[in-house]
Amino acid sequence: MHWLTSLFVIAVCASVGVRLWLTLRQVAAVRAHRDRVPLPFAGAIPIEDHRKAADYTAAHGRLSIIDTLLDAGVLLALTVGGGIAALDRFWRAAGLEGPTLGVAVIVAVLLLTTLVSLPLSIWRTFGVESQFGFNRTTPALFALDFVKSLLLGAALGIPLLYVVLYTMWHAGQWWWLAAWGVWVAFTLLVTWAWPVFIAPLFNRFAPLEDETLRARIEGLLERCGFTSRGVFVVDGSRRSTHGNAYFTGFGRHKRIVFFDTLLERLGHPEVEAVLAHELGHLRLHHVRQRLIVMLVGGLLALALLGWLARQPQFYAALGVDTPSPHAALLLFLLATPVFTYFLTPLAAWWSRRHEFEADRFAASHADADALAEALVSLYRDNATTLTPDRVHSAFYDSHPPALVRIGRLRALARAGT
């Protein structure tokens, strides 16, 4: 067995082992604290809601175990099991060659993995989410979303694949620089098009009609030195009772979007505080920092791919007997997450640091107590566990644990920050 094959299989097994261990820790932790609401939340979250959050987290944990094992099985079958090689031979026998062959093979793999994961997606929506009262998606809407996603992925992804593979075929040894430029342009184009052309394919967006709340939001934007192309409400209640808020677009085309479910649950001061937190991410350049890291990371990844694509053993070790640009790209996309998985705690730590900074910004421009109350409402209504496992949280969580975050907000409120 080639050393790279051994390393890859060991990395897959190690990542699966860590995932399963962390999931079991999380399930055990929420079950152990299921019958006692943490003291700081005792007056705000009933024991029934706390138990629901524990059971909801455990149900998702059980589903995650199946998902982890299924993903690993599919990954090994496609790589060292010869799945990609078999698809490559099939399309070659059909007479395809060059970038067209590459697109056919990659699309076949993506479609196969999508179909394999579909039963779990159905169970997550109509099993777990329905069991706990969150799902509002009908089977017809689920099917329509699935078809739309496939068509949208084809409309955006196939042209991108053609361009990248054509570049790999014809741009010489430094093709990865040209491919990086194509990827950057594509990313910016999709970011610009998302709020205006893509998101409305799945949801309805309407201007915020509450004049009092709109005036309050405009006042906050003015205090923080922001402008936007409008404040919109999205019909998230068509699919779920979960609530959220976000910014979309960039430059002068930024939009503020609130889920209708969020506005139904929070008062005006809480909505203002949530928005102040999101503004903090922009004002403190968190979005820009993440974009820079993503672009630099993409460049380094493509440079590595440029080197690996010239190594015959890279293909042979991962189950492909005929080297080609599309095989290199596909193997890289499948194998890289296995190794970068172990960087997850670093990314999670960085994200939690940004959340604390955005909370402090919100406390300076809105009411820290209102933000704390909003978060408590969201924890309760979204069945977010208040008692996550410490190791699981440190490894995965992009947001600080509820007890820590609320404690810091209460301290900021007392300090008048």
Low-confidence stretches: none
- Main beta sheet: strand number and arrangement? 4 strands, mixed
First and last CA, distance: 61 Å
Count of helical regions: 16
How many β-strands, per DSSP? 4
Radius of gyration (Å): 24 Å
Strand order of the biggest β-sheet: 1-2-4-3
Instruction: Kindly estimate the percentage of residues that lie in beta strands according to DSSP.
Output: under 5%
The assigned structural class equals mainly alpha
Mean pLDDT, to the nearest integer, reads: 93
* Proportion of residues in helical segments: over 70%
N to C succession of SSEs: HHHHHHEHEEEHHHHHHHHH
Shape: globular
Task: Describe the protein's architecture and organization.
The protein is mainly α and 417 residues long. The chain has a domain at 1-135 and 313-417. It is built from 16 helices and four strands. It has helices spanning 3-32, 47-78, 83-93, 98-131, 139-170, 175-198, 211-224, 260-265, 268-283, 286-308, 312-317, 325-340, 344-365, 368-381, 390-396, 402-415, and strands at residues 205-207, 231-234, 245-248, 255-259. Strands 1-2-4-3 form a four-stranded mixed sheet. Strand 3 and strand 4 (255-259) form a beta hairpin. Helix 6 (175-198) crosses helix 10 (286-308) and helix 9 crosses helix 14. It is globular, with a radius of gyration of 24 Å. It starts with a helix and ends with a helix. The relative contact order is 0.12. The model has no long low-confidence stretch (mean pLDDT 93).
